[in-house]
Amino acid sequence: MAALGGLPPRIRVVMAANLISSVGTGLVQPFLVLYLTEVRGLPVGTATAVISVIAAASLAGSVAAGRLMDGRSARAAAGAAMTVAAAGTAGFALVTTAWGAVLAGLAYGLAYGAMVSVWNTVIALGAQGEHRATAFGLQFVGLNAGVGLGGVLGGVFASTADPDRFTLLYAGDGLSFLVAGVVLVLAIGRQQAPDPGAGAPAGPRGYRVVLRDRGLLQVLAFTVVLMVVGYGQLESSIPGLVAVEHMDPRTMAWAFVANTCCIVLIQFAAITRISRGGPARLLAGTAGSWALCWLLLLLTTTSARTGFATGLVVTALAVFAVGEALLSVALPTLVNNLADDAVRGRYNGAYSAAMSAGLVIGPLLGGGLLTGGPPWLLASVLGLGCVLCACCALLLGRRLPQARWAASGGAGDPRGAENRRQRSREPGPSEALQKMEAGGTR
Fold first, then answer.
1. Which residues, in sequence order, are CB contacts of 80 under 8 Å at separation 6+?
2. How many domains does the chain have?
3. Number of DSSP helices (H) and strands (E) in the chain, helices first
4. In a domain, 428, yes or no
5. ∠ at Cα 326 (320, 330), nearest 5°?
6. Orientation of helix 306-338 relative to helix 344-372, angle to 10°
7. Percent of the chain predicted with pLDDT > 70
8. What percent of the chain is predicted at pLDDT more than 90?
9. Which of 88, 298, 351, 427 could form a disulfide with 335 if both were Cys (CB 3.0 to 4.6 A apart)?
10. Contact (CB, 8 A) for 172 and 419
11. What is the arithmetic mean of pLDDT over 104-128?
12. Considering only CA atoms, which of 400, 392, 49, 53 is closest in space to residue 229?
């Protein structure tokens, strides 16, 4: 709690908005496929296709939000993202046809990708140095706590025998986005758009200026691969492995409870220490913990005892949580310390798009491994991929320009960020925050 109290008041309000929307997300997140098939009578193939539509649309949403934030304001992007998200999730409540489900998924996916970019950009603009890393970590705690609370409430209230209950759940999710959107827009205030004629160097105004940053491109490539071997499997191949091994269906429920609890406990217990860690070590730790997770899952494929295998799965997802806690601080902090304020929205848009790409590719790879070979092949290949990612993280730490990488450390050397601001003539942290506050609600 001391770490939370040390953050700027505006950032604490932003986190409250994130918590509100996360509770709404938790109300419906576990039930979409079940709802579309059991309540609305759509084929399973259609329901899973909607999940793919959401993931693919989030790519476009990430890119669009980044451009909107840099070209206009974070406030406009936040309001648009939350409104479209509310419309998309409320649309699921009214779905009666396959096309209706696809359209709702398209709207929600666009908004989801935009929201990730918005949250990261707003936090980066409002918090600097070690506070920035702490803010990203605590935002992740709020996300998981909110989704967990919403999941419990949704699980108690949902019933396939009463379709009206699902209608209310999706309406509640939509309402949470509207409330969170109002809070977020008020917290941001009236932000002045960057003036391309004063302070920003001449050059391309689209994503070309972002893609010229070789350091960022290396980080984005690493992000895609790490998502493929890690996050991209969390809600697809890992449950699939449990199903193939004929374990109790409740195994994944307990495993996700353990995962969420560990994330919250780790972040609250060690957020300050994590925030001070170097990004290379944090990212290597993420990949290493996910490799251990896959090793534990590999052992489940060789165990003949059901109870022991169940315990291994629960433990594996608890170990996975360690990597999530480290990643939530390392990657967004690194990306935002590579960025200048004039292009911060596009940097976060590119980062969000890289994550989305990994989340699209991951289930495809995992599904192919799971259906095309024995269960141990999935755990072996992805575990090896995590080991390689750990090595790449350490290599990335050596290859990035030292000043830029040092600026990304938790306590960090402020000279790296200051040098970049001088080269690009961008305003410092206090000036960037003043831009957010200009005319805004306090």
1. 65, 68, 114
2. 1
3. 20, 0
4. yes
5. 140
6. 150
7. 86
8. 45
9. 351
10. no
11. 92
12. 392
Which amino acid is it at 303?
S
Residue 294 inside a domain? The answer is yes
In this structure, what is the dihedral angle of CA atoms 396, 399, 401, 406, given to the nearest 10 degrees?
40
The one-letter amino acid at 287: A
Range of the domain at 386: 2-437
Residue in 168, 226, 256 with CA at minimum distance from that of residue 392? 226
CB of 237 closer than 8 Å to CB of 369: yes
Contact predicate 397/405, CB 8 Å: yes
Is 90 exceeded by the pLDDT of residue 379?
Answer: yes
| CA–CA distance, 383 with 377 (Å, rounded to integer) | 10
* Distance, CA of 110 to CA of 61 (rounded, Å): 4
Can you tell me the distance from the alpha carbon of 110 to that of 98, in angstroms, rounded to the nearest whole number?
18
Q: How many residues are listed for the chain in this entry? A: 442
For residue 127, tell me if it sits in a domain: yes
Residue 264 tokens read as 């919250």
Q: DSSP letters along 370-417, please?
A: HHHS-HHHHHHHHHHHHHHHHHHHHHHHHHS-HHHHHTTSSS--HHHH
Q: Write down the pLDDT at residue 1.
A: 56
Mean pLDDT in residue range 20-27: 93
Asked whether residue 249 is assigned to any structural domain, the reply reads yes
Residue 254: give its domain's CATH number. Answer: 1.20.1250.20
Query: What single letter denotes the amino acid at residue 110?
Result: L
Q: Residue 117: its pLDDT value, please?
A: 93
**pLDDT tens-digit map of 143-199:** 988 988 998 898 888 887 888 898 999 999 999 999 999 999 999 876 544 444 444
- State pLDDT tens for residues 336-350: 988 888 899 999 999
Q: Which amino acid is at 171?
A: A
What is the radius of gyration, based on Cα positions, of the chain?
21
